[in-house]
Write a structure and sequence with these properties.
The structure holds two protein chains of two kinds.
Chain A (H helix, E strand, L loop, with lengths): L2 E6 L2 E6 L4 H7 L23 E4 L6 E2 L10 E3 L3 H15 L16 H9 L23 E3 L9 H9 L6 E5 L2 E5 L16 H5 L5 E3 L10 H4 L2 H5 L6 H9 L3 H9 L5 H7 L3 H5 L11 H10 L7 H5 L8 E5 L3 H12 L3 E5 L8 H4 L8 H13 L3 E3 L7 H7 L2 E4 L5 E2 L13 E3 H10 L8 E5 L3 H12 L3 E5 L10 H10 L2 E3 L2 E8 L4 E14 L6 E5 L5 E4 L2 E4 L3 E2 L33 E3 L2 H4 L4 H18 L38 H4 L12 H10 L22
Parallel strand pairs in A: 1-5, 10-11, 10-13, 11-12, 13-25, 15-23, 16-17, 16-23, 17-18
Antiparallel strand pairs in A: 1-2, 3-4, 3-5, 6-9, 7-8, 14-24, 19-20, 20-21, 20-22
Chain B lengths: L1 E4 L2 E4 L3 H11 L5 E4 L14 E3 L4 H5 L6 H11 L6 H19 L5 E5 L9 E4 L12 H14 L3 E3 L2 E8 L5 E8 L4 E5 L2 E4 L8 H8 L18 H8 L8 E7 L8 H6 L6 E2 L15 H9 L5 E7 H10 L17 H10 L23 E4 L2 H8 L3 H13 L24 E14 L9 E3 L5 E7 L19 H21 L7
Classes of the chains: A alpha/beta, B alpha/beta.
Chain lengths: 708, 509
């Protein structure tokens, strides 16, 4: 690249051939005022603020349009230039509202900063009452307060040049120019892809993001990608959706595997908070992010990520024991092995997987798929020993440099105050599901009453239906509102009876033979904010018995940890770090760490994996490593030009086809075959690609330049 | 993680933080300023000037206020329930602060009043090429101060939020943790910290919890983006004492004030004002003191009130050629645009409005009409919810005193304009408004932040609206420029004091 020197206000400025005077100045940290110029956009030359004088050339020129040439002498500061800039500025201010305090761009507004810089705070010109500011102001996601527009045209250029969408235009009406869409169509009809580039480059508050789309409590560049922010493990979701769209399924899995160890399991059961964040929700419906994950794994033939995934750092000679082979424990084990430590996982059940293979129904998350993912962790070098319960962590600590306790919440809770809860045929959800998954014997009879109305209650109910039982779910909440509506709907389809607004009185029968559940109806209830006790408004004389042969409690789970395990516990049985009194990754014993449900209470697989990653980083540091577990498995770039897609805004969300109740209720196969290739491509296309926006260069205000 | 180090860290680059950083750097200290936004000056960018007494401008203009007189007036106004030592220091410093700013290359237009009966303490910044007071002209001063700070080597970090203050085992401050907009964490060490984050005007939860007002219901204050109460929360988290905060009260007609200025200014003339019970409650000529008016409204049912006029009063203004009250700020002289704006208001057309008030256009903040038009008083009362029977009685009584002695509140006869039948009736609802919050972090007169035992937290100082408790329960409207005056003078003092502390025997390592 040819380099040369020019002089601005007597200062030598290094320039490269092809640069304009403005570009050269700004690259040298030398400020020349400008508004319509944006580093990522072609020059327009409209605002007239960057005017400069060049020795030997008559009259001022725009620095944004004048090529930098060797040896030229440029003046950027003079009284006449200041005057020209003031006039240009006042022309813009004449039609701009005065009361910046009500503008969301306050202190981030380039126009406001320009007022400071130029000292042109008001217009001496007649106030211009613009007529066309009300056009096209009712759109999703993008708020257009066009009275604040200074017509710099950055948005038009961004949409056309940067994105190739070309949905915005300069229009004219009643002799007044304004910015809208061709034909003043609503953005959705004008081909807008709602990428937000126009908002990002807007120098004022004229274009804004709809309030509430982006979180304000996380750093802005992260907040701009809401799905990734909401994901507990912060998977690069837009990247893998893009790969799926391109048919690069193995690359997609690689991206997912950068952050999580169980993509397939998550593709089945993740609680997909990412979809709650999805910006597309404000347009029509979120992307089916979770189902896309499952799709990617099931279509990943090459596993191109695997070689790098299995590669580990040089061995450190340090030994780590992990207690519990659930998602938290196995994730910690995988990363600690990768960091070079020798890891052994101890599991008390006969197969690894924790809740994924024991605590959730087979039809939601098939054992073989979970085991396949565990096998990859074993291939990487982790040793898993099943049917090996650990009763004392201090004992274990003697043989290992560090221990991670990740035993989860594997013990089901019974409501022991309910008379009859100690009868023989009274079980917990964990008992029932584990027996079903691991093929353990359990005596249930014909009819089973389930106490509880959350998602776990419906897991149990639908498992029992598949076991050929008659099933009643008895719960306090109207319409079993603690569980997801789809879950309730599908369960009813499969034949589950729901007794909502019911409160339990006692289990009826004898210790050897349960005959029913005595209940009464309630109008309403709440839990006392302090004592947490149930306070209900019963329906008078509504007591009756729902007959059954056995009872299953779906009333939550506990760690089952006792004092002799060797860790300090709180009154609910969760280990705590005595320095803070809270359940944390660190415990009361040095070198013993904890992660997953055992410190968070029963949560979701994604939370367990995120916890496993965090604790691995912490343990690695404890063992002398750098704790740096982030790895790029798939190199990728983002193409900023996204082009037009007709009717993009209305593309409907693709749903996995659900098997009919008859097809699904007699077996434990997944209730859906997953998305089709066509559907997955469509979902990939529907993505708004929020990750493109942080790539747009942030404009530096005068405040950040060294020379100004 | 990025590590930094300086003698002094200033949290917030608004007027007070900027003053503090500059004053400290002038004492050869190294200073880092953390600012969440992209530019400096904070709320001061909206202002025009600041309070000073015995300045060279006042002397030149033969304004004979003295520090002693205004100090006494100020303390009488606050019933001595504020830190008199601090007030005195700020007043004594104020004249030199004008010259301090001038030395940075700023010119002033002179000392101004805000309304008829106010003191002439408002030093308005001159705009290049103009000899008229201009809205937002204080941003010119902001630029000059930033340039001065830059020359002195102050390091500004923009788009960067401080998350917490780090303290040592003796309670002394050691540094801060911050995060930039990419998410990169910054740990900065220092010997002293000045908290200058500007209160919590943009935090409705804190306003509800700490002041007891519900934004969007009985309060429609400015919400300058970013004023989330960061400073108060961070100081609280390390054991700093927190004083009650207050709203810097004014009054407003949401969706009208600043948007339809002719309607707004006409409905803010000293005509009849009544509450929902249909009763008068103040001498309306006080309405040019927005603090007093906001206070009076705050004790009415539902914290709202209405001004009522008739076409006959509009005719009187047309005949007179100008309104009774014309504010420097809005400068609406007459009712020329009345018809046009009334029509636009009811058609929802904002294109003829003078300004956009964006936050009121959001769905969550949308409020029903607050300006009413009717053919009779009865209809007007039906629309507004005012008690008609009482309103009728009030207006009959008011009309009987028109142009004469106001037996109830002694308003000047020239403002006792009769509400005549035969034309339209108009009402505007007025609610509490405010520029933001004041006070919170407890300091002593050296602007050292105190803990619960009234002991200074070593190395921690505060300035600006986060700590501004000198107004007591009400902003002192009779000494215009006081809030910016406090910001700039408290910042300047805090900056100097922080560096003196670092160099003193009291410094806690």
């Amino acid at each position: 690249m040819e380099k040369f020197t020019l002089y601005i206000d007597g200062n030598p400025i290094e320039a490269t051939k092809g640069q304009t005077i403005l570009e050269a100045a700004l690259a040298n940290d030398y400020y020349i005022p400008h508004l319509c110029t944006h580093p990522d956009l072609p020059t327009q030359g409209g605002c007239n603020l960057c005017v400069v004088e060049i020795e030997g050339i008559a009259g001022p020129v725009r620095a944004c349009e004048s090529p930098a040439r060797e040896g030229i002498r440029v003046t950027s500061k003079s009284e006449s230039l200041s005057h020209r800039r003031s006039v240009a500025m006042e022309l813009m201010l004449a039609g701009h509202p005065h009361d910046c305090t009500s503008c969301k761009a306050y202190l981030k507004c380039e126009l406001q900063a320009m007022m400071q810089y130029l000292g042109a705070v008001h217009s001496r010109l007649r106030t211009v009452n613009r007529q066309n500011t009300n056009i096209n102001t009712n759109n999703p996601l993008i708020v257009r307060e066009m009275e604040r527009c200074i017509q710099c045209g950055r948005c038009v250029r961004a949409c056309r040049e940067m994105r190739g969408v070309d949905a915005l235009s300069f229009n004219k009406l009643n002799d007044e120019t304004y910015i809208s869409t061709p034909g003043d169509l609503p953005l959705a009809d004008a081909g807008c892809r709602f990428c937000g580039a126009c908002v990002e480059v807007c120098p004022t508050g004229a274009l804004q993001d709809e309030a509430g789309v982006f979180r304000t409590d996380v750093p802005r560049e992260q907040a701009l990608i809401p799905c990734q922010v909401e994901c507990a493990a912060h998977i690069d979701i837009p990247a893998y959706l893009r790969f799926i769209k391109e048919g690069k399924y193995s690359e997609a899995v690689g991206v997912i595997r950068e952050k999580v160890t169980f993509p397939h399991a998550l593709g089945y059961v993740c609680n997909n908070l990412c979809e709650d964040g999805c910006k597309r929700t404000k347009l029509n419906e979120p992307i089916s992010i979770r189902d896309m994950k499952r799709f990617a794994v099931e279509h990943d033939k090459e596993q191109i990520w695997k070689e790098k995934y299995l590669r580990t750092k040089p061995r450190t000679g340090k030994k780590v024991a992990v207690v519990g082979a659930g998602p938290a424990g196995l994730t910690a084990a995988y990363y600690l092995n990768k960091q070079g430590h020798d890891v052994t996982v101890f599991e008390k059940q006969k197969i690894a997987g924790g809740h994924m293979t024991g605590g959730m129904p087979e039809y939601r998350i098939p054992t073989r798929d979970v085991l396949a993912e565990i096998k990859i962790i074993e291939e990487s070098g982790v040793k898993i020993i099943c049917e090996h319960p650990i009763s004392n962590v201090a004992e274990l600590k003697k043989d290992y440099d560090a221990v991670v306790v990740a035993i989860g919440t594997s013990i089901g809770k019974k409501l022991s105050y309910l008379p009859g809860s100690d009868f023989d045929h009274v079980y917990t959800a964990v008992d029932l599901l584990r027996a079903n998954r691991l093929g353990l014997p359990i005596e249930l009879g014909e009819t089973v009453n389930i106490i509880g109305g959350g998602n776990v209650a419906f897991d149990v109910a639908r498992t029992l239906i598949r076991m050929g039982k008659k099933v009643n779910v008895v719960c306090l909440e109207k319409n079993a509102s603690q569980a997801s509506p789809e879950e309730v709907h599908e369960a009813i389809e499969e034949g589950v009876n729901i007794f909502d607004c019911h409160s339990n009185e006692a289990i009826v029968g004898t210790k050897e033979k349960v005959t029913g559940l005595r209940v009464h109806k309630i109008n309403s209830f709440y839990f006392h904010p302090e004592t947490r006790a149930l306070v209900e408004d019963p329906v008078p004389d509504s007591t009756y018995v729902i007959p059954c042969d056995s009872i299953v409690f779906a009333a939550g789970q506990v760690t089952g940890l006792a004092k002799d395990f060797g860790l300090e516990l709180n009154r609910f049985g969760y280990p705590i770090d005595p320095r803070t009194g809270k359940s944390e990754y660190t415990t009361s014993v040095e070198g013993v760490f904890a992660a997953g449900d055992v410190i968070t209470g029963t949560k979701f697989v994604i939370n367990a994996i995120a916890g496993g990653r965090d604790v691995a980083s912490l343990v690695d540091k404890y063992l002398g490593g750098d704790g740096e577990i982030d790895e790029t498995l798939i190199e990728r770039t983002r193409e900023p030009v996204i082009g037009r897609i007709d009717d993009f805004a209305r593309m409907p969300r693709q749903q996995m086809a659900l098997k009919s109740p008859e097809e699904r209720k007699y077996n434990f196969l997944p209730v859906s075959e997953g998305l089709t290739c066509e559907q997955a491509t469509c979902e990939g296309t529907r993505c708004l690609q929020c990750d493109l926006r942080p790539d747009i260069t942030r404009v530096k205000l005068w405040t950040e330049y060294a020379h100004k | 993680m990025r590590r930094m180090e300086a003698d002094l860290i200033v949290i917030g680059g608004g007027m007070s933080g900027l003053s503090a950083a500059t004053a400290a750097a002038q004492k050869d200290a190294s200073v880092i300023v953390f600012e969440k936004g992209g530019t400096v000056g904070g709320a001061a960018n909206m202002g025009m000037g600041f309070f000073a007494v015995e300045s060279k401008y006042q002397k030149a203009q033969l304004v004979n206020h003295t520090v002693d007189e205004l100090f006494k007036e100020f303390m009488d106004y606050t019933h001595w329930r504020v830190n008199a030592r601090l007030v005195k220091k700020l007043f004594e410093q104020s004249a030199s602060t004008v010259e301090w700013i001038e030395d940075m290359g700023v010119e002033f237009l002179g000392a101004f009043k805000y309304f008829e009966n106010s003191n002439q303490t408002w030093h308005i910044v001159k705009t290049p090429g103009s000899n008229k007071p201009a809205e937002r002209c204080a941003s010119i001063m902001v630029k000059a101060m930033k340039d001065t700070a830059d020359e002195l080597g102050v390091d500004f970090l923009f788009y960067t939020s401080v998350k917490e203050i780090i303290t040592g085992d003796k309670g002394q401050v050691l540094g801060v943790r911050a995060v930039d907009q990419r998410g990169e964490e910054i740990e900065a060490e220092c010997s002293a910290i000045i908290v200058a984050t500007g209160g919590f005007g943009d935090n409705p939860e804190m306003i509800r919890d700490r002041i007891g007002l519900t934004w969007g219901q009985d309060l429609f204050s400015f919400r300058i983006p970013g004023l989330k109460g960061d400073g108060i929360r961070m100081v609280e988290a390390i054991g700093g004492a927190i004083d009650p905060s207050m709203i810097e009260v004014t009054y407003t007609t949401p969706g009208v004030t600043n948007l339809y200025k002719t309607i707004s200014e006409t409905m803010r003339q000293p005509n009849l004002m009544i509450n929902l019970d249909g009763k008068r409650f103040m001498d309306e000529s006080i309405m040019n003191n927005t603090t007093f008016t906001g206070n009076a409204i705050s004790v009415q049912p539902k914290r709202k009130a209405f001004t009522i006029i008739t076409d006959s009063i509009l005719d009187e203004y047309r005949a007179q050629g100008h309104l009774d009250y014309i504010t420097i700020h809005h400068n609406i002289q007459n009712v020329d645009h009345w018809e046009e704006q009334v029509k636009a208001y009811f058609s929802g057309d904002t294109s003829v409005a003078d300004e956009g008030l964006s936050f009121l256009e959001e769905d969550t903040n949308k409020i029903p009409n607050q300006f009413f038009i009717a053919d009779s008083l009865e209809e007007l009362c039906a629309q507004t919810g005012i008690n008609y029977k009482n309103a009728r009685k009030t207006i009959d009584e008011y009309n009987s005193m028109a142009g004469r002695y106001d037996r109830q509140f002694n308003k000047h006869p020239k403002y006792m304009r009769e509400l005549k039948e035969g034309g339209k009736w108009y009402a505007a609802a007025h609610y509490m408004c405010g520029y933001g919050t004041l006070a919170g972090i407890k300091t002593d007169d050296e602007l050292r932040v105190l803990d619960e035992d009234w002991k200074p937290i070593p190395g921690l100082f505060g300035c600006g609206t986060d700590v501004c408790s000198i107004f007591g329960d009400s902003y002192n409207f009779t000494m215009p420029g006081s809030t910016m005056g406090f910001a700039i003078n408290s910042g300047r003092l805090a900056g100097m004091n922080a560096i003196d502390y670092i160099d003193s025997d009291e410094f806690v390592e």
